[in-house]
């Protein structure tokens, strides 16, 4: 009996005899066995052919002409891209100017890379309106770089201190006793609401919060803002809910 016959016999034996029904499927990459047991459970077993495929690729590679080293290929591509940079960007001319809200929760190191992204999206040929929605402590840092700012509330120093005091999944006993957990819940609630406001409100989110009636009668329509897309880092939490509510694209990233 060959190795493959032994393996097949072993597979079928492992499936047992107390089956109401059996199914066998054979594919070029795998063979699957399934049985419906009398107690209602389903047993499934796979035997993949990855080993055979890897040996085939290894054999094929011996007869393939070697390509240029990665460094050489990348260098030539890079030179070609630099020479055609304007042609590449030219493909994006004439597209609609959209409003992009960038949600960021974290430290200055989390905010800084998104400022570079925002500045690029504001430039030719994109010309998008970009608003960074983050903690009020970073207002000056964002605006001095020529990017619109919106406050979502929250204090990054307090958030970091809480994380240091509670490095695990569950908060420590001292945090529970001191009321840290309840305070953090309130902070997160404010941040969630701030992210939503950053998608739909004019202004910078600080000071007087305008009512719907005030927003509707805003004399300067250029100040109005409704997000057409959202970019966010995962800890801002509200991102997917805001995007779903507005029916707009969302791109999440850790920088």
Give the secondary structure arrangement, pairings included:
Layout (H helix, E strand, L loop, with lengths): L2 H12 L4 E8 L3 E8 L4 E7 L1 H13 L7 H14 L1 H6 L8 E5 L4 H15 L6 E6 L4 H5 L4 E4 L4 H10 L7 H6 L1 H21 L11 H5 L12 E4 L6 H8 L3 E3 L3
Parallel strand pairs: 4-5, 4-7, 5-6, 7-8
Antiparallel strand pairs: 1-2, 2-3
Describe the protein's architecture and organization.
This protein has 255 residues and is α/β, with parallel strands linked by helices. It has two domains: 60 residues, no CATH class; 157 residues, Glycogen Phosphorylase B (Rossmann fold, 3-Layer(aba) Sandwich), CATH 3.40.50. Helices cover 45% and strands 18% of the residues. The strands form two sheets. It has a five-stranded parallel sheet, sandwiched between helices. The two termini are 57 Å apart.
Summarize the structure.
The protein is built from 11 helices and 8 strands. It has 255 residues and is of the alpha/beta class.
Number of domains: 2
Proportion of beta-strand residues:
15-25%
* Net shape: extended
Mean pLDDT: 80
Termini separation: 57 Å
Low-confidence stretches: 9-13
Q: Could you give a short account of the major beta sheet?
A: 5 strands, parallel
Number of E-state strands: 8
- Assign a percent range to the helix content: 40-55%
Radius of gyration: 28 Å
- Work out the helix count: 11
The CATH architecture of the largest domain:
3-Layer(aba) Sandwich
H and E order: HEEEHHHEHEHEHHHHEHE
As laid out across the biggest beta sheet, the strand order is 6-5-4-7-8
Which structural class fits the helix and strand makeup?
A: alpha/beta
């Amino acid at each position: 009996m060959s190795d493959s016959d032994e393996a097949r016999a072993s597979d079928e034996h492992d499936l047992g005899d107390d089956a109401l029904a059996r199914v066998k499927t054979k594919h070029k990459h795998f063979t699957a066995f399934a049985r419906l047991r009398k107690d209602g459970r389903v047993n499934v077993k796979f035997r993949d052919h990855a080993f055979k495929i890897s040996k085939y690729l290894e054999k094929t590679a011996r007869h393939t002409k070697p390509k240029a080293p990665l460094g050489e290929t990348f260098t030539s591509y890079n030179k070609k891209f630099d020479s055609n940079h304007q042609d590449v960007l030219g493909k994006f001319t004439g597209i609609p100017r959209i409003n992009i809200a960038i949600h960021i929760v974290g430290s200055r190191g989390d905010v800084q890379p998104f400022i570079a992204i925002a500045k690029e999206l504001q430039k030719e040929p994109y010309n998008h309106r970009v608003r960074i929605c983050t903690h009020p402590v970073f207002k000056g840092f964002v605006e001095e770089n020529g990017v619109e700012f919106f406050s979502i509330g929250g204090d990054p120093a307090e958030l970091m201190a809480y994380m240091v005091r509670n490095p695990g999944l569950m908060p420590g006993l001292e945090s529970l006793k001191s009321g840290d957990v309840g305070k953090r819940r309130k902070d997160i609630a404010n941040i969630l609401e701030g992210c939503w406001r950053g998608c739909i409100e004019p202004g910078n989110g600080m000071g007087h919060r305008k009512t719907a009636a005030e927003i509707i009668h805003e004399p300067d329509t250029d100040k109005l803002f409704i997000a057409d897309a959202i970019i966010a880092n995962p800890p801002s939490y509200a991102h997917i809910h805001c995007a779903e509510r507005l029916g707009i694209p969302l791109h999440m990233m850790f920088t």
